[in-house]
Specification:
- The structure is a single chain.
- With 471 residues, this protein is α/β, with parallel strands linked by helices.
- The protein has 13 helices and 18 strands.
- It binds calcium ion.
């Protein structure tokens, strides 16, 4: 049981980018500290490799296709799918914010604000603190601070939009850059400082829920010194799937954003992207440290449930894709660290997903978990490392500007089955081939495994009201 909640999220952070969970030469002293103090779920999967839908799932405890937020929806006019705007949640969805507010928590939100609820988050009730990117932009204007020109770090992609036509839209590119402003003028510093100030001033007489959703290591990978030069590109051992052929992957991925932004990049160029990505992770780690330090200064700091995870991962050149929007491990296998007041520690191997985060937080705060939520509290796995977990977890992708490029994935203990709308089926042995280099779909020796995961996927789709049926 916890008095308060600190919910920490980064954007686009891979599992292997935390030093304590990785063999890669990256520095994350603050996340390492959280790993040492808490429980890490080693098999945690995102609901969707895209911001809006996966954050909708995190806030409702319901899969994107169940809560209605399918896509980011950055096209005008918005894409209408099955009679509603495809990026928005169903009008009757309840957010964990609402539940905690009604349960008497002081509420604070700092950072990324992509949940397309009706009404939107800031209008749902009066927050003690609500601060986003817009406030940071205002801060820059008020102080006459010039940021960089984003256009230099974007690439034009042909994207399917609401009309069903293809349009050119700009997406963050993999080329890194030096940010003209120092660490103390970065957006994540501004947000972490806001969160720390809330923790320093919020009364200890009432419980609080603080959501701190930081921006990095989301591209553009434009970062200040010392982070920009912190990692030598030549000294980073790239995983074997970086720059690898995607000939056996779904052909539609090459038409879609990750294929377009990642195409034609050399290994030397990918190394530069990796070095900047590592720098961005170390920068955001320092911001997380600012928030954790402020929490630990409070006398009720230990009585606070701390939950950390990213919204989705980053391909960083795996299979020659950049960004996310594909259901490969780099984009959907995510770190999840939970620090409990009981001081539970260690690693857990049970499969779990984004859909389980809200039920877990409510469970620890002793607030009733609504039946509508589709996940489960992970507390039984925290209490008992040997407790039996689910056999399979699921992830989905439904497009970015428009419902398109559909994918579904069923992830089991050892194997993963992935279906794409263009008819491509993929099966990977994650134990022997964690980089998903060899597609085993159709192999007769594994026919039972493939059939079983397909059956599980379809059963899940039926149970949760999916709008398509995977083959
Ligand atoms: Ca995101």
């Amino acid at each position: 049981m916890a008095k308060n909640l600190l919910w920490l999220m980064t954007d686009q952070q891979r599992y292997d980018s935390i030093a304590a969970l990785s063999d890669l030469p990256i520095q994350t002293p603050n996340l390492d500290r959280l790993v040492a103090q808490g429980v890490t779920f080693e098999r945690h999967y995102g609901a969707c490799p895209l911001c809006g839908p996966t954050r909708a799932c995190l806030h409702t405890g319901r899969y994107p296709h169940s809560c209605g937020s399918l896509i980011n929806g950055f096209s005008t006019p918005p894409h209408i799918f099955k009679g509603k705007k495809a990026h928005e949640l169903n009008a009757d969805e309840v957010l964990i914010d609402d539940i905690l507010h009604e349960s008497g928590y002081r509420m604070a939100h700092v950072g990324v604000d992509h949940v397309q609820s009706i009404p939107r988050k800031p209008q749902r009730f009066e927050w003690d603190l609500y601060r986003t990117r817009a406030d940071y932009s205002q801060y820059l204007r008020d102080n006459n601070l010039e940021s960089y020109n984003k256009r230099n770090y974007q690439v034009a992609c042909s994207t399917k939009v609401a009309s069903g036509e293809f349009e050119t839209q700009l997406y963050s590119a993999p080329n890194p850059g030096l940010h003209p402003l120092p660490f103390e003028e970065q957006m994540d510093y501004y947000l972490a400082q806001s969160a720390a100030e809330f923790l320093e001033t919020a009364s200890e007489d009432e419980p609080f829920a603080l959501f701190c959703f930081l921006w990095l290591p989301h591209p553009p990978l434009v970062i200040p010194e010392p982070y920009y030069s912190m990692y030598d590109p030549e000294a980073i051992p790239l995983p074997p799937n970086i720059g690898a052929s995607n000939a056996d992957k779904a052909p539609m991925h090459m038409q879609h954003t990750p294929g377009q932004v990642g195409a034609n990049r050399t290994l030397a160029e990918w190394r530069e992207t990796w070095a900047a990505y590592f720098g961005a992770v170390t920068l955001v780690d320092r911001c997380i440290g600012m928030v954790l330090d402020a929490l630990d200064e409070r006398s009720d700091g230990d009585d606070t449930l701390v939950v950390f995870h990213p919204d989705h991962g980053e391909q960083l050149g795996a299979h020659s894709y950049f960004q996310k929007m594909v259901c490969y491990e780099e984009s959907i296998h995510l770190p999840l660290i939970i620090r409990t007041p009981e001081g539970d520690q260690g690693r857990r191997r049970q499969l779990c997903g984004h859909v389980d985060i809200a039920p877990t937080m409510l469970d620890y705060l002793d607030v009733e978990v609504p039946k509508r939520m589709q996940g489960r509290s992970l507390r039984s796995f925290i209490d008992d490392p040997d407790a039996e977990g689910p056999e399979v977890v699921f992830s989905e992708y439904n497009g970015n500007c428009c419902v398109a490029w559909l994918q579904r994935a069923a992830i089991g203990e050892r194997y993963k089955y992935k279906w794409s709308e263009d008819g491509t089926r993929e099966l990977y042995d994650l134990q022997e081939d964690p980089g998903e280099l060899t597609n085993l779909a159709g192999e007769s020796a594994l026919a039972d495994v493939e059939q079983h995961l397909r059956d599980e996927l379809r059963a899940w789709q039926e149970e949760t009201g999916d709008f398509i049926v995977a083959e």
